[in-house]
Amino acid sequence: MLADARRRYALAYLRENDGEASFDELADAVATRERAERPAAASEDVALSLHHRHLPKLEQVGLTERTADVVSLTERGGSALETLPGAAADPADD
């Protein structure tokens, strides 16, 4: 589940920001972090993949929750990066 860097970036951003963020804020933050590694990462592409692919998977396993426009880290999600072997606490360290 957390082998995907985009999912790790999203969880790390939520953890760094008191456990929640608006969807747009989260998408912008993930795109900004990816641009540091891949300058071609487009914000719109990141937002679409978060909305349709990554956040639903994180919700399905109980790591995040979503309401209208807010994405929240669950208690389980808050500890996921530290407890999974091979998952960096700071995805930027990858």
Automatic annotation (TrEMBL):
A Pfam family matched in the record: DUF7344
Domain annotation DUF7344: ranges: 1-65
Signal peptide bounds: none
Transmembrane regions listed in the UniProt entry: none
InterPro entries, A to Z: DUF7344, WH-like_DNA-bd_sf, WH_DNA-bd_sf
Identification of the protein by name: DUF7344 domain-containing protein
